[in-house]
Design goal:
Chain B: Residues 347-429 form the WCX domain. Chain B: This is WYL domain-containing protein. Chain B: It comes from Brevibacillus gelatini. Chain B: Residues 233-314 form the WYL domain. The complex is a heterodimer of chains A (268) and B (435). By secondary structure, chain A is α+β, with helices and mostly antiparallel strands. Chain A has 3 domains: 6-60, no CATH class; 83-157, SH3 type barrels; 177-262, Alpha-Beta Plaits (2-Layer Sandwich). In chain A, 37% of the residues lie in helices and 28% in strands. In chain A, a hairpin with a 5-residue loop joins strand 2 and strand 3 (109-123). The longest helix of chain A has 18 residues, at 159-176. Chain B has 5 domains: 7-88, no CATH class; 92-160, Winged helix-like DNA-binding domain superfamily/Winged helix DNA-binding domain (Arc Repressor Mutant, subunit A, Orthogonal Bundle); 164-215; 227-336, SH3 type barrels (Roll); 347-432, Alpha-Beta Plaits, CATH 3.30.70. Chain B contains 15 helices and 12 strands. The longest helix of chain B is centred in the first third of the chain and has 18 residues, at 36-53. The chains are: A alpha+beta (268), B alpha+beta (435). Chains A and B meet through helix 1, helix 2, helix 4, strand 1 and helix 5 of A and helix 1, helix 3, helix 5, helix 8 and helix 9 of B. Strand 1 of chain A pairs parallel with strand 5 of chain B.
Chain lengths: 268, 435
Amino acid sequence: MNLFDKIHNYQLITRLDEAGLYPVTSHEKAWLAKMLKHPAAQSFFEAETLSKLQQLTAAYAPTDERELFIEKAGTRTRNIWHPLVRKLRRIILGKNHIQLHAGTRSGRAYRRQRGVPYKLEYSLAKKEWYLIWLTFDSEQLLTTPLSLIRSVKEIYVEDAWYDSFLPVIESMLAARQQTAKIQVVRRYNLELQRILYAFSCFDKEVAYDPDTQEYTITLRFLQDEQEFILSRLRFLGLRVKVVENDQLKRRMAESAANALARYAPSAH
Amino acid sequence: MAKEGFDKELQLLRLMFLTQGAYNRQQLAERLGISVHTLDKTVKKLREIQSTLYQHVTDREKKGCYAQLRYNYFAVTDNFLMFLYHAKSLKESEIERLYRILEQLSRQPLSIKELLDAFLTTPTGEVPDEKTLRQDLKYLEELSVIKKSGDTRPYVYQFDQELWSSLSDDELLDLHDFIDVMANTQLPAVPGYLLRHKVKRCLDSRLQREDWAVFLYKYHFVSRILDEQQALLLATAIAEQKKVKFCYFTPKRSKFYDSQNTNPAFLRDSTGKPQHVYPLRVVFDHQYGRWYLLAQESEKRPLRKYRVEGITQLAYGQQAAPDAFMRMQARVDERIQHSWLIDTGKPVTIRLRFFHPKGTPHSFIRERVEAQGQWGVITEETRESFLYEITVNSTLEITPWIRSFGSSCEVLEPLYLREQLQMEWKELLSYYESV
């Protein structure tokens, strides 16, 4: 299989695209056939659609059922799909509002909260689906795990009304933006690539000082991502040091002090 | 014509994505082992591909993200490194020809003769010779982009639109979402992204709008797709039990990267080492989003571990003896059975105490250990903490994971790991003592 096939050439694809022609290759059909065998496929489609797709791709299904790769150190996937995804994605597509009942991690529950659904988010770290939405009650932008949502009701509104909230949501997101500067400790420069890979799932910039041979990573993230960033920083240990962002610095100091305390002779 | 390789583009893209703005042109070129002139040319080519492919992306900010390869979570929902897979170059005349063939065959089924006639009515009026046309049709048919029908000559050809014509808008939306989720969560992903692009464009025109994508993927190692071509080639070699040859650049060098230049004018001493090995397993590491190859020169030689990103000029070699190959593969499977990633060091049993979070009934610590602790087991649990035990090949690869829990995890055994963590926390504290 060659992924760099000439049928994918950018000029050809663009011309076909303009003419509304979308050629599907045997590789793509084979890929689809393989994916349709995933147990989750059933929950994505109506039974009729699924069987139609299976029929269309059956001739291309790979005969070798062995896994191509070995995957290591992943997060066990509970489910790559949630029954509410389909419903919520259509409410967002239709530019409508929602009313929902949801629980919280602390055990409290919210009833009949009305709001504007914005995006559905899947965390590859936690393997869980979330709804990002604006509540009318608290005027907050919330990220609610779908697993905590008990029920959703669609409330039909004019598109323009839905759209009028988008700038509000975007400015709330912008207000939550934070930055941090993280320095690669020089004696670990040989591991630079690995360190950069560890941060490759964030929005970032890197600065390099050729005189001191120091690399500084500027991360941009949302307030609620802080915990994940802290765990990545601890993951890398002595290789990196937070040089700008007082909150992260303080948390790293606390974390190190508390962890060290676990090993103090009097601990147990 | 020499086979077109994409090692250079791939490495440039990776370097630019990972180091995001760290290097100037001179420094980039140096690290890639190419001249500044070649660098400029390659960047120009990549930019052209991007701007052609994403011309329908209207939002200014989005365009900025594509052009600068910036990971902007809310602005870009595509995998913006995918454009690399559209880099295969094609002559103007061939683009025109393939486009006309597909366009004509999408209107109605045609025989070769009819197709030749149809070329007369196209804007250029240029008719390809029959032999070329036959080759094109054969290529498109093998790719299953067109279908041949009829039992006897002349055969009739037709553009395969079945997928599009048999699905309603609503079904197509479900298909899009399915492909989107699978390409972003499963391996391999590139064929999925290629297909997704088409489903997306088809839906754009059917729904008459472009703002219908609602899924976001958080903490995604988008750059994992850069090595997928190599990973798939290696997986194929493994399935076919073939030896592979490549030039290897180990990533742990003062230079960030290096690439072989095919232009003799810039031929220089390469620091890469030629390898000729039996590929045995391709491993994907979810912690960093990187690929490894496990291989052996021969049954008697030690197991070698390569990072797939350092593999260039990959080519297939001779067929292996099936028995020997199976033996080598079984042996490597056994040896990595207890590898956190790929370490084949001495097995050691690690015992850890994890502490439940305070003030919440929801133990996200336990949840994380269960989800990420691989084959380790939770042995005892109290209200405050629980014990976890795992046997792994050396402590090296699991240590970052242990550390990531901070004070929620204490190493009980082995003693040397306990002492190591204690030292590390002490030193880390000194980084921030002035805070």
